[in-house]
Amino acid sequence: xxxxxxxxxxxxxxxxxxxxxxxxxxxxxxxxxxxxxxxxxxxxxxxxxxxxxxxxxxxxxxxxxxxxxxxxxxxxxxxxxxxxxxxxxxxxxxxxxxxxxxxxxxxxxxxxxxxxxxxxxxxxxxxxxxxxxxxxxxxxxxxxxxxxxxxxxxxxxxxxxxxxxxxxxxxxxxxxxxxxxxxxxxxxxxxxxxxxxxxxxxxxxxxxxxxxxxxxxxxxxxxxxxxxxxxxxxxxxxxxxxxxxxxxxxxxxxxxxxxxxxxxxxxxxxxxxxxxxxxxxxxxxxxxxxxxxxxxxxxxxxxxxxxxxxxxxxxxxxxxxxxxxxxxxxxxxxxxxxxxxxxxxxxxxxxxxxxxxxxxxxxxxxxxxxxxxxxxxxxxxxxxxxxxxxxxxxxxxxxxxxxxxxxxxxxxxxxxxxxxxxxxxxxxxxxxxxxxxxxxxxxxxxxxxxxxxxxxxxxxxxxxxxxxxxxxxxxxxxxxxxxxxxxxxxxxxxxxxxxxxxxxxxxxxxxxxxxxxxxxxxxxxxxxxxxxxxxxxxxxxxxxxxxxxxxxxxxxxxxxxxxxxxxxxxxxxxxxxxxxxxxxxxxxxxxxxxxxxxxxxxxxxxxxxxxxxxxxxxxxxxxxxxxxxxxxxxxxxxxxxxxxxxxxxxxxxxxxxxxxxxxxxxxxxxxxxxxxxxxxxxxxxxxxxxxxxxxxxxxxxxxxxxxxxxxxxxxxxxxxxxxxxxxxxxxxxxxxxxxxxxxxxxxxx
Amino acid sequence: xxxxxxxxxxxxxxxxxxxxxxxxxxxxxxxxxxxxxxxxxxxxxxxxxxxxxxxxxxxxxxxxxxxxxxxxxxxxxxxxxxxxxxxxxxxxxxxxxxxxxxxxxxxxxxxxxxxxxxxxxxxxxxxxxxxxxxxxxxxxxxxxxxxxxxxxxxxxxxxxxxxxxxxxxxxxxxxxxxxxxxxxxxxxxxxxxxxxxxxxxxxxxxxxxxxxxxxxxxxxxxxxxxxxxxxxxxxxxxxxxxxxxxxxxxxxxxxxxxxxxxxxxxxxxxxxxxxxxxxxxxxxxxxxxxxxxxxxxxxxxxxxxxxxxxxxxxxxxxxxxxxxxxxxxxxxxxxxxxxxxxxxxxxxxxxxxxxxxxxxxxxxxxxxxxxxxxxxxxxxxxxxxxxxxxxxxxxxxxxxxxxxxxxxxxxxxxxxxxxxxxxxxxxxxxxxxxxxxxxxxxxxxxxxxxxxxxxxxxxxxxxxxxxxxxxxxxxxxxxxxxxxxxxxxxxxxxxxxxxxxxxxxxxxxxxxxxxxxxxxxxxxxxxxxxxxxxxxxxxxxxxxxxxxxxxxxxxxxxxxxxxxxxxxxxxxxxxxxxxxxxxxxxxxxxxxxxxxxxxxxxxxxxxxxxxxxxxxxxxxxxxxxxxxxxxxxxxxxxxxxxxxxxxxxxxxxxxxxxxxxxxxxxxxxxxxxxxxxxxxxxxxxxxxxxxxxxxxxxxxxxxxxxxxxxxxxxxxxxxxxxxxxxxxxxxxxxxxxxxxxxxxxxxxxxxxx
Lengths: 749, 753
Prior knowledge:
heterodimer; A: alpha+beta; Immunoglobulin-like; 4-stranded mixed beta sheet; 30 helices; 18 strands; about 40% helix; B: Immunoglobulin-like; Jelly Rolls; 5 domains; 8-stranded mixed beta sheet; 51 strands
């Protein structure tokens, strides 16, 4: 089950024998109606949906890989009805069905609980479902007749509507057959909300909008087909005072807010903006000098100029290289990986510094050839060795598509088939390797030959095709990976630019327009489709210019809204009516603490003063409990979710009491010691400390509290007041400690 | 019981490991060889005098610093007293010495050292002023200069220069090409040190100054390693806008020995003309041809079309990697036929790498071949035309899919067979103990009585398959070299260089040629010598960096001798009748103790390599080699063989120094005693001396006291020297290759009955 191994918030949940489903089965009245005994029953059209609705063919039950349960195997969600039919009717010499005495069929006796069944009672003998199954067996358990219609389309009605908060809407699921028949399968379809905080949906398709406002989608599945119901739940508050739109981002964000009736928070002040954008682009706190200069600047374009400055700085390259190298699995598993890892990290970092177009960056990575030293993106092929892993990583990271499921079966929520999977893997089948002088490292080259991958299910050879798109014939001499890169950078590609802008949007707004950011599919629509489309177009039109994307996002008024909610938008989590605060990530926080304490963290083999955001690979996590506790990823997954952004008790305890934090507070010639020694008024010192930590002046009450505290004389172990110098040093250490433990410090807000 | 067995096995493993570990640690590989490792600076300007400091391994009693070109000369740097300062020289570079890389070596007690590159430039040369590892400490670097520097571990060297807006500035850091271990990262930053342009793959930075002002150059190792081996020559010069960028000179990789083919003109006849990427736009050529082109831009494909007739045989050669480019050329030749409206393509030949003539060491743990690769990712192959008609040749770079670098040039030659060969040699490496993967720089610095083996490998061209014999010249007095020829159809031979016991201390430049009959003509070709830039005792942990040397320096120590000499007891040719048994008495001259009672010898030399290995005693003075010609089936003729193996000598470093040191210590001790006696005498005199003479005695006593102090210090130093000499001469287990002197054999035809 590849999707169970993929870190994701959307993994398939273990099957739970829920009372709802039992109840459902016990009372199930098949929509097929009372004519069952009169009409021939089709296994594919009538029987399979029963198994799917009952949960018999989920991954933890009879669709478990490697034999199902107790020798009886069904295909996942019934994607292979012919195989299921064979398992059910022909396997085990037909012991599962008894044509002579249908009630004695093992299938019915187990499902009804007459015989012990690990999955419990699934069918009440008095239910219509039971009757339908029995009747089907009585008819000789036919697969289907030649003239039987096949399912060709599936829809949900309504497809889109506005629902008031706390309002409800019953969905209707309709199956369209090849003979023109339309069948109501509402009670047989499966439903899932993409935001359970916003909308709940029952097993029978009743949608209920909960407290929050915004856009939500419900995915409806039936027999391998999917449909989506999109709901908009407006708040309806007055939205008269909307900030003036500065660019298209604002037009779409504010347009959506106007539609939903959610008034945005006001714009943030300069201090907040400086700190926010420096953290988001440069991965660091602003320096005191930067803060002083920015706050003193009276020009109207100073925010834009600040953004330009940050984009030009190596800090931007370091910070985003840190993001990309983790996703590209720059892991150190062996000491000898160091050269490859440093070279690869540097290639990413230098590419960002030079603002290499994103499509070129991806092309150089996925079609890399040569040696690691000569061409560092080759290191990706050292980390990601198997073609299937290569295609899965490329699809998830660069296309936002999770195709892992389709390796073994049709993707349950998507249109991707196994043919699509192997056609995509075919692009990577001509990657040749030759040993190099370095242990564990290969030279990568294009191996002449016609790229072909074999569908392990059907045995059919598949030529390269990109998620269903034909890319033309590829000669034996052409590296198919280049054709894949061409396809990606085509302006009409529906995935490539979308996946990137959504990923970057999330970086700055802390929530993707599509969540998770790398699970883009028809059944998981964006919360603001127009905005996503506009960002995508802008990115393509700019020539895949990453800095321009950052520029357009951060210069928008939407990005510059305050994090402080108003009376209406406090519960908004998806419409960007205010800035959503987020804890600083591990590396940024460590650098920030180093800055405020004027300490530095020594990393093995790196020059003193190297910042944590500039670390080339995961190996430094081993020597830094701080980075581990605050969730720095190990580069094991292409999913950003590997980075732990949640808070924990361990983090609090670490900040309060860990030896490394204590050492930083007492760092020789650190900020606390310097402040204690400096011959300046205490108030000046407190102001400078606040500038360093929060990029702002202290409020009057904060200043008074700090000054009162600094005036205290601590007692030593014997209860005696300590000398003035020690008192000053310890008091400043405590004051710095208090500031770095505030939420204002720990969060970007 | 399973767990008990498991425990026993584990215990046994631990015992074995514990038992072996000290042996492995105690035993080192290869007898001490003199190695020049660093010079500071690493070069100088033509016409200048440069003060150079050197460091190295086993550099005892260094006499002279010698160069591979007579236009570079060195003399010892004198101190204020006119005495030479150890390891410091004044190097004079003649004004007419062309810019380039040259070999520098020092003559030591053990002979001439391994080489270190010494560069000659036409720019101002400066030396790094350390420390400069921060922006605040950045060193000022004038334009049009070269700075000789050394990277420190975890350090970033900072330099600053003044730039004018629009000026084109080149920053080129020579490292691997001048024998450095540095994988340089070179950054140009603004005045605040913020990165503007970065180069990490050994390329040069071509920088157009955006604004008038100060700019920072940062230099460090890719993984922030550092130390004396991580030296660099940082060049900074102005270049007119459209002038081509010429890099600092660099050494040649080993595989470039096979390029160019003899007689190839310097300039190719034809240049590749773009566009020629599509089947509709091939470049028309006629055979034979000689074309210069480039794999540019990314994923460039060059198509050439020519007419050829059935049965024609052509040889296709491409050089690109051997020109120093990181490329992997590939050729596909197809016949273009007609298929209705379109064309029908038939594959005729697919050509890619030139395999190494001998198996190269893999990157696994065990030693499984020489650590030198004479092969290349270039192309050399035969094209046989199957059917007359138009043929299309597709040339591409298998590494070039995404790289757009106009420097990735190639030369394509298609010719009628011109059978030929090229030779390269290197000091023989072999497995000296389990898993040994040493890749050592081995200067041809001979101990008296030693025979050193050079492995010679041939790159055969255009179907030449004949045997290759060797000729030598220029070896020093008392040194002979004989070649164990490369048999027909094979790729490897040996050259045995023997210094006779009485060979005088000397050095010379030698030359080796290969000689073969090709088409009835005797052809001779020079043999290039390759060596490791550094001694790498464990290539598992460090990738060795071999290169071609500019010359072949051979020297004799005259002061140290081989631990063992194995030679036939009787000189001359050993005759044997075909099919009979040949017994060759051997004499073993031992000058050292050995670990173990016997060593195993194998036989090298065409016709005798299949002879079974045999043991010779390491305690006896004679032995014999026995060859069964019936088994070997060596046909009548003349043969030359060598016997080789390895032995662990109990090497003692200069035991002669002990006696000299002891003598010096005794002298120092006597001096102390004499001064003590003198002081005593003065003390006695002072007790009876008059008041007037007391000041004089006092003064004399003070002088004696001062001399006493110095004498005590001298005694301590002398005692220390004795201890050092004693320690150094303690026997140390060193395993090394042992090769016999060459043995000539004549197999006579059996008499027909």
